[in-house]
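Contributing new records

If you add data, match the layout below exactly. Sequence lines come first and carry their own label; structure lines follow with theirs. Keep one chain per record. Anything else will be rejected by the validation script.
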Amino acid sequence: MYIKFIGTVIIMITFSAAGFRMSEKIKHREESQRVILHMINRISSLIEHSSAHVCEILIILAEDETLSKLAFLKRAKTYYENGQSFEKSWKAALDEENVMGESEREKLIMLGSSLGKSGRKEQLKMLKLHSDSISEQIKLNAEEFRNKRKLFSSLGILTGAMVSVLLI
């Protein structure tokens, strides 16, 4: 009797935790996009105020503690220091990234391939477009988190309850 009760509680807790974890993934995606937005704004200010070359920008970004969640920056810096071009270093580091989603990775690959290829004004316009796109995605993710947090939590609890009832 006690073993069934303990098993039921464990099953309910497991499924509930899975539901909470699914909702937290959405929140994590939003937070990582905020860090990416900060990185883009930092790149814009470096280009606008110091006319920094992309390689200098890469080194500055890799050493920035506020961007430490973007591990690909340190890898890209290492690749660049080992003789690869900026664009190849950026892409290779992003190809190894497994934390962010595919859409974020593709946007960042596009960003890296266009940096340093045009004049300062064109680069700033391109960075503004990326910034606006990511800001919009952040808003959508925040709304999705608000809407789906309760859904995933409730779904986890109810699934746990259903499995527990079926096992009893």
